[in-house]
Each structure stands twice: as structure tokens, then as C-alpha cells.
Amino acid sequence: MDRIADFRQVFAQVVTTRAGGCAPEIREAFARVPRHEFVGPGPWQLSEHGDVTPSDDPALVYQDIGMGLAPQRGIPTGLPSLHARCIAACAPQPGEHVVHVGAGSGYYTAILAELVGPSGRVDAFEIDRELAARARASLGRWPCVRVEPASGVDRPLGEVDLVYVSAGVQQPPRAWLDALRSGGRLVFPLAPNDAIGGVLMLTRTDSRQVFAASFVCPARFVPCVGAPGLSHPATESAIPICRAQCLDL
Questions:
Q1: pLDDT digits 0-9 by tens, 221-237
Q2: Cα-trace Rg, the chain
Q3: Rounded distance between C-alpha atoms, residue 243 and residue 249, angstroms
Q4: CA distances from 192 to 144, 221, 247 (A)
Q5: How far is the C-alpha of 30 from the C-alpha of 88, rounded, in Å?
Q6: Best CA proximity match to 101, nearest among 194, 188, 216
């Protein structure tokens, strides 16, 4: 095992343990995906506004910390253990169709792609064109992934098994809810602007108008560009049909 692969193995164990324990396939996905290839060339900022590392040794990125992904635009990478917890909650399965909104440079998209496997599909949306281009280049080894430089908020998505959102919204757009098959899951951060909020999961039941809802964890995310606010007409018909059957707050 080479040095960086060894670091990834330890990193994966730490991340999934801090996430509260995850299925082995999630730990293995974090161990396989090379995070250093998605964060850009070093040296790196080891937090959104932190100091720069003294070297560009890729081993430095294998820690359970958020990093500056596009710090000049205030875009961080996201905390690995937070995403491990959210991914464990929605449990992507081989062969499923996943939509990833707010893909950044594609690191967590790659984790999702590892979990759905070659028989699955991941459509990744990233509105920042520079990051979308980086994601497309880095995700080339996962042929099941398609990257689009768009928000993923206001367009039909087809029928999907999972919508995984990596940007905060005040209410989920109707398009995300309409896309879910029976048993499909929507995981999204419900947060005002960039303040601390909570990650929720909605699961479509056999009824088109009833969703089971659960609280995953508190979190802070950058806002989802283009997502409607509380008074936006795109959400007015979405939230009333979401009857929480199992809300654990």
C-alpha cells in the first residue's frame, strides 16, 4: 500500500467513526476516493478562513476538517464526517439514480458514485462554472457521473432515488420533491442564509402527497444559489403536501 492510500484508510476510519458509525461500504468509499485530487493544488487553507499549510504534501488533506475550496468566493469543502453522517442516513444503494446539488469540485459526488456503482447514475449540479469544470475533470474515472454547470433548482430532474443537497435552503424547491420515486429520499440543509440550521431527510411514501421526515444533524452550509425563499411561489405548493410522519427533533 502506498503512503497516501494508507493515509486514506486511516482517514476513512476516523471520518466514519466520528459520523456515528457507518456501513462498511461508506467507509470503503472514503478510503478509495483521493480527496487531495479534488481540493486543488496545495498549499491549502485548512479551514474556510484559516492559515495556509506550510507544504503541499497531499497527506495534509486527510483530516476530518473543512478546507477552503474556493476561499476567495467563500466556498468551503464541507466537513467529511458531516457528509458521512448524511450519506449514511440516506444510504445510497447500487443501481440507484442520484442527483447531487451543490457538487463543488466533485469529492462527495465521487463518494456517491462509489456507492451507487457502475450500474447507478449520479447527476451533479454546480452553479460555479470554475468548480463545475474542476469536478468534470476530476470525475472522469466515474463514467456513471454527469456534471452540469447549473444550480439544479429549477429544472425537471426525471425520476430519481435520491436528491442530495450540499447547500442551504429555506424551503426545498418543488422540483426536488416531484422527482422522487416511491421510497426516494431528499437530504437537504434547512438553514437561513449561511447560519447554522439542520439537515433533514424527506422520504416519499406510497402516496404522492405524504413524506416521512427525519432530522439528521445540525449543520451550516453556504446558501443554495437560485433556491426560492419562504415566500417564493415555487415553494408555496411544495411544503403543505409534506406531512411529517416521523419528525425527530
A1: 776 776 666 444 444 44
A2: 17
A3: 15
A4: 33, 10, 20
A5: 12
A6: 188
**Angle formed at CA 89 by CA 249 and CA 31, multiple of 5 degrees:** 140
Instruction: Kindly state the cell numbers that stand for 72.
Output: 476567495
Q: Is the peptide bond before 43 cis (omega within 30 degrees of 0)?
A: yes
CB 208 within 8 A of CB 185: no
Cα–Cα distance, 58 to 36 (Å, whole number): 6
Q: What is the dihedral of CA 165, 79, 122, 247, to 10 degrees?
A: -40
The residues near 151 (Cβ < 8 Å, ≥ 6 apart) are 101, 125, 127, 224, 225, 226, 227
* pLDDT in single tens digits along all 249 residues of the chain: 499 999 999 999 999 999 998 999 999 999 999 999 999 999 988 776 678 889 999 999 999 998 888 877 778 889 999 999 999 999 999 999 999 999 999 999 999 999 999 999 999 999 999 999 999 999 999 999 999 999 898 878 989 999 999 988 888 998 999 999 999 999 999 877 666 889 999 999 987 778 999 999 988 777 677 666 644 444 444 443 344 444 332
Residue 70 cell numbers, joined: 474556493
Instruction: Give CA–CA dist 47/164, Å, rounded.
Output: 23
Are 172 and 235 in contact, with CB atoms under 8 Å apart? yes
User: Cβ(16)–Cβ(27) under 8 Å?
Assistant: yes
CATH architecture of 74-241: 3-Layer(aba) Sandwich (3.40)
**216 near 187, Cβ under 8 Å?**
yes
- Residue type present at position 18: R
